[in-house]
Amino acid sequence: MIKRNAGILITAACVVVLIGGRVQAQIIASDVTPKKRSNHALEEVIVTATKRDESIQDVSGAVTAVMGTDLQNNNIQEFQDLADLVPSMTVQDENSISIRGLSKTSAAGSSPVAMHVNGVFIDSRGEPFYDLANIEITRGPSGTVYGRNATGGAINVKWARPASEWGVGGNYRQSSLTEEQFQFYVNIPFFGEGDERLLGRMAGMKRRSDGRLDDLFTSNESDPYSVDDQFVRLYLSSMPSDSLQLSLRAVRFESMNGQGITYGSPSLLTRRGGELEKAGSPAPLPDDIQIVRSNPTSRLGDAYDKYTRLEADITWSLTDLPLLSDVDVVLIGGEQRRNFRTIIDIDGTEAAILEGSIDSNLDKRSNAELRFVSASEQAIDWLAGVFWYNSYLETDTNYNVSVYLTQDNLGLPTVPNNPSVLTGLAVEFIGAYREDESLATYASFDFDMNQLLGLSGVEITAGIRQNWDKPTLKNRQNIATISHVQNVPFSLELANDSNVVDGLAKFSATTGEIAARWFYDEDRLVYAKWGRGYRPGFAQRITDLNGNTTQKPVEAEHIDALELGWKGEYFDSQFLLNMSAYYYDYTNLQVTQVTGTAYIDENAASAIIKGLDLEMRWSPSAEFYMQASVGWLDSRYREFCGTDISAPREQADLGCTDDARGDFSGAYLQAAPKTSAAILASYTFSFEGYGTLTPQLKTSWRGEQYRRGYGNPEDLIEGYVSSDIRLTWASPLQTWKVDAFAENIENHTDVFFGSLSPIVVGAETPTLTYFSPLPPRVLGVSLEARF
Q1: E strands, 379-454, where?
Q2: Of 330, 441, 450, 487, which sees the most CB atoms within 10 A?
């Protein structure tokens, strides 16, 4: 078993060697290595989706790599912006990412998209994008090298590596959203240019902008979904010898209020339905869903999110080993410690209808991975490794909940008809902690069938992974108190339990994949791939109003995926075209159900997912560049009996039960647009002695999709187009750039990606609220300098 402090040990080892290294070494190659193949050929992109360096055109699977220059030139700083360029990818919020219809469908479950930074699994969103080498998005389950949480795919955000030359640069941006943003980087070769014994790179960002909704009780800078954050990071690298590569990375991130507050904007029907007024709102909300009346920080205090993360990796190249020849030994790991306070206001009013706060006592995530990779070209290449991950989260949670209760619910003598009464509950979970520990071993083999059997251009890949996961859930104390009845102050303690039953569970699964690719031409291949993915379950406890607690763990999800693909290069690598078709059988889906007054996660569904992806890049000249993508997705529940509180049924549908009355078989999964498309195009005009002028267009289409998987018209997001245009002047030496831009030109501020029901539990009139709106139209300028 890898010890819990493995990440710290790796970091300490790197520090020692980085300080002591004095041997001249060769430069470490960039994570994405550009290689010109002709005067106007597109640069070759090297990715690590298989945890070995490989051309993106040679990978047996669908991988998108968005380069750091494209991210910077298009002001892509968050996953919601990134999704515009990736087929069949949708972001409901920065912690809920959907790829090919696989999203987070349960409140307490983990994401089906495995998040990595520099190859280190972090299971969270990370800091805003800046000074990156690239972002790799692997679409489809990666059951061998990623395993846990990779049923939908995996994302790897890679920082720009230190270079062997001095460098400094920065960017300042202002926009009509009262936005100010400053970015900088500094590159330092500590022993002089061209000397790679010790290289360093520092980067940072500070930004602030107004919110996306209008809160009538706050100023613009405090409006919902405003931004006020900053980070600074350091990247050190060294090669003490030709056989040893070392890296050490650290980042500090801080955010205040806006992004730490979850705001709900009630639907139009809810605003007009009267239930919010019954629950305490002094007046109806306006009909405009972009307007709320809340100011939650005045009642609940400020929100914040702060974390420090350390990462390190060591690559030791061993040569001429008996039987194995050349082998790279890679040790990578890190630890993140986070302190946060999250504010939640679901009802969008000044009343305490459904709101609360979550305060972290400790949030620590540690992981380490050791792998052995064959480094010589042989008939059989192989990779084997072991992975360990541990997360520990302890919080204090306070909620105010409005719920209709009967006298029977309250433990009082029943009366005729047992009428329900609107009741305000104050609920506290003190010292709640969730711990997840994961261990996995894996191996992957690449067979060159030309060397083995004389089959020219044919390669077979096979991999297997064994996963073990152990989630634990504990509480020190649960308290439930009635705060008011029918808006009249009242005090009655319903439960005060300091002997809470622990939530325990264990899961294990074998995942893997097998793929075949045929290079029928030097620049073209076809491939077929089958993979099995796994998302672990989690511990869950159900507590009733009398304080009685029982265990009800949620089981793991599984997916069997078949993918066929084709990749090709044309016109001397000036035109690249990749296509893939896929079919998924998705079982044991974790979904959140509403039963009585409680939200309960269950394995209640299965689904069939099928689709097509197409990606293209074209650069017929040094001046013109275009990339485009198209996605078609059909993701539907095969079987699903559930409860949509916003559209209640008087009786159960055929085959369903009273606890889950609705038959949603055939309904589309949430965050799964049926069609998606994007185009990014630019043309550079050169003016001798005066620099260059580059107009650029980015436009994307997202077809209709649902915020939740119930087929409810209230959850339907109509198809929409989102476009940015930019005009960039660059000086003759590219040291100065001025950028004028218009972003989100169509101004679809009425598009919200998330929803939740109910706001008032047990209300006769359904209540529904929306989250995560698109940003408004923004006009602005930015100035960039690089030296």
Answers
A1: 380-406, 420-448
A2: 330
